[in-house]
Amino acid sequence: MNPNAKEFVFNPNARAFVPSFAAPAPNPAPPAQTPISPPVVHQSPPVVHKPSPVVQSPPVPSSSHESSSSKTWEDIDEDLTKSPPPSSSSSSSDQLPKPTESVFKIEEDDLEIDEDEVSKEIEKLRVENEEAAAAIPEDPREHVNVVFIGHVDAGKSTISGQIMLLTDQVDKRTLQKFEKEAKENNRESWFLAYIMDTNEEERAKGKTVEVGRAHFETKTKRYTILDAPGHRNYVPNMITGASQADVAILVISAKKGEFEAGFGGGQTIEHARLVKTTGVKYLIVAINKMDEPSVQWSKERYDEIVGQLSTFLKKTGYNLAKEVIYVPISGYTGANMKEPVGKVVCPWYDGLPLLETLDQLPSLDRKVAGPLRIPITGSYKERGVLVLMGKVESGTVTLGQQTTIMPSNTKLEVVSLANYISNLRSARPGENIMVSVKGSDDDSIGGGHVLCDTPCPVVTEFDAMMVLLDLQKEKSLMTAGYEAVLHIHTAVEEVSIVALLAEIDMRTQKEIKKRPMFVKSGAAVRCRLQTAHPVCIEVFKDQPQLGRFTLRDAGRTIAFGKVLAVGEKKKK
Q1: In terms of DSSP bridges, do strands 385-391 and 432-438 run parallel, antiparallel, or are they unpaired?
Q2: Which one, of 230, 288, 229, lies nearest residue 255 by Cα?
Q3: Strand pairing class (212-217; 458-468)
């Protein structure tokens, strides 16, 4: 403290104090010999300052070029006024945080929800669901899950979007928005695909990555669209969509060169095989882009594609007369999708349009009276309440029902049921639903878990019959110890062959060789498999959707099969 310092006098006209860490540092003052431009004179009367005593600052070491005389607050204020403005590279003061503004943000996920609040929310959800479900009568129409498959760029997302448009599921304003976005991205012809491809990455690349979902209905049925990716890098995602489907629409591009690319070395063949192994009952082959200039609804081109596909599908195991239907369409214009194509455009086609073809399919055989089985595709939390998503494969789930989630064997109570349109009192087989449950807050529940009324088998070893498709050239022989990736319902697990039990003749279904040392591509074999972790698996004849599987290795499908025995039955 300086006892000789003079009294401080407050200057009301001084500039506001700004800390040095918040304001940009002024540029260094110009040399003494450089003339300083006079300050701008305003029209308002000048403010006359009364003389005030000099405030002497504490002595500090100074450089030789610094002035030795003390400055008043007015002098410092004047120096700041005369200092040149900060350069354009400096951030403006309006971009700086306010002194009282916190730099920390509290996210909703950081807040812990009290257990009492969760209980209240569950009870509130239960009441709201019961009231909403009571106000809406149960829909007697059959629900069908339709997966769109095929080679990349065949037009799957465009056809899905066109269906949504034709069934009045998209309003004009939303469609205009998609048209504008597609034009801005130089993808004018993709605006229909934007209805399904909601991800920015998908829109930028023009490739579906995740399985898109949408819903539409006709007078006789309700449908869920599963828009599967066509690129070979996303086949695991495609399998997830196919495992939930009842009907598959194989989209083929009739354009010259595009059909050949998909059928020769593309995903057309692999997708058709996969949906067969995942339990899809009916296959509709939509021959798309028939309006393309190189095709122009040519019957010769249509017959050429039908001939090549029929030969392959018959070898895959499809019954061409009962399970396969061909429909020529244009996904971009909507021709022959809702209304029949005119005879002027296509005089040789006498069949039904695409949507009528779907409606005319026979009703599916559902296991309504079977045990409850809901393979889980994912989960999330809503205000502390755990919500599970999945398709009811067997049995019926109702509000208030006591269930078990496997393989963790955790007891759960159903407090809310809903599909993607409304709340439900109960859900039958075939429904894609969201189930809010009480009894667990484990949000890691996802693919591979199964919601049951009675626990399903959970094993690490099982016996199966497999058909080998196309083994890798580097691993052309399958022997004990062969490793691959198992896809069964919504589960994905590493698996290895423990033992080859017998080679089987596909025509007679009889064993032709016991305990073979190895098998090759095209062979059928009964074998024992072991998974890296416990998996929910059931015998195929009891629960087909939990008993059929696919093996993949190095990005390609190498085998498909069905479970013959698990647990004690396997040992016997």
Answers
A1: antiparallel
A2: 288
A3: unpaired
Distances from the Cα of 63 to the Cα of 66, 67, 137, 281, angstroms: 5, 9, 89, 90
Q: Whole-angstrom Cα distance, residue 507 to residue 513?
A: 15
pLDDT digits (tens, 9 = 90+) for 347-383: 999 999 999 999 999 998 888 889 999 999 989 888 7
Distance (Å, whole) CA 220 – CA 140: 9
Token pair of 313 as six digits: 């599908």
Listed in sequence order, the residues at least 6 apart from 247 whose beta carbon sits closer than 8 Å to its beta carbon are: 144, 145, 146, 147, 280, 281, 282, 283, 284, 358, 361
Burial group, residue 562, by CB count within 10 angstroms (0-12, 13-18, 19+) = middle
Q: What is the DSSP letter of 14?
A: S
**Tokens standing for residue 426:** 């109960």
Residue matched to tokens 């061409």: 320
Residue 339 near residue 353, CB atoms below 8 Å: yes
Token pair in block for residue 91:
């951030």
Integer-rounded Cα Rg, in Å, for the chain is 35
pLDDT tens by residue, 310-353:
999 998 889 999 999 999 999 999 999 999 998 999 999 999 99
Span 489-506, pLDDT tens digits: 999 999 999 999 999 988
Residues 191/194/199/201 CA torsion (nearest 10 deg): -30
CB 333 within 8 A of CB 339: no
Phi and psi dihedrals of 322, rounded to 5?
-110, -20
Tokens found for residue 40: 């701008």
pTM for the structure as a whole: 0.73
Count other Cβ atoms within 10 Å, centred on residue 400.
11
Closest CA to 520 of 466, 454, 561: 466
- How far apart CA 347 and CA 325 sit, in angstroms, is 19
Across the chain, mean pLDDT equals: 80
Q: Distance (Å, rounded) from C-alpha 79 to C-alpha 195?
A: 62
Are 415 and 461 within 8 A, CB to CB? no
In 3D space, the residue among 108, 145, 565, 192 whose CA is nearest the CA of residue 381 turns out to be 108
Rounded to an integer, the average pLDDT of 148-153 is 90
Cβ(248)–Cβ(282) below 8 Å: yes
